[in-house]
Amino acid sequence: MKKEKINGQSGAINAINKIVSKNNTLKQWQKEYEIEKGIIESIIETRKEKGITQFELAKLTGIKQSTISRIEKRLDSPQLSTIVSIAEVLDMKICLERKV
């Protein structure tokens, strides 16, 4: 494999993107990662807009505060049931749409 000089984070990201573009398994993982990232970012944004702390969200959902923290820090991937519980408390809508 040809070595490339990587300068800073953008260089690392470019190198990773080159590797991913050549591997279908990594392409699928990247797609799933981007979807999960978007969901988590929406949850964090909505929670903060509503002025709800992680501790309060934990009490309202029955999910441990440490679990919510790990999800928001992207250390854990949330189960669908966890996403549904959080979405209900935050008055969020979960929607799957058919690709056009």
Task: Describe the protein.
By secondary structure, the protein is mainly α. It has a single domain (9-89), classed as Orthogonal Bundle (434 Repressor (Amino-terminal Domain)). 66% of the residues lie in helices and 0% in strands. The protein has five helices and no strands. The chain is elongated.
Please name the defining characteristics of this protein.
100 residues; mainly alpha; 434 Repressor (Amino-terminal Domain); 0% strand; disordered N terminus
Summarize the structure.
This protein is mainly alpha-helical.
Query: Percentage of helical residues?
Result: 55-70%
Q: Which structural class do the helices and strands define?
A: mainly alpha
Which sheet architecture does the biggest sheet show? none
How many runs of DSSP E, i.e. beta strands? Answer: 0
The Rg value, from CA coordinates, equals: 17 Å
Q: What number of structural domains do the residues give?
A: 1
What's the CATH class, please? Mainly Alpha
The first-to-last residue Cα distance is 39 Å
H/E series? HHHHH
% residues in beta strands: under 5%
Low-confidence stretches: 1-6
CATH fold field value = 434 Repressor (Amino-terminal Domain)
- Using the 3D structure, state the CATH architecture: Orthogonal Bundle
Going by CATH, the homologous superfamily would be: lambda repressor-like DNA-binding domains
Dominant shape? elongated
Count every helix, treating DSSP H or I runs of 4 or more residues as helices. 5
Average pLDDT over all residues? 88
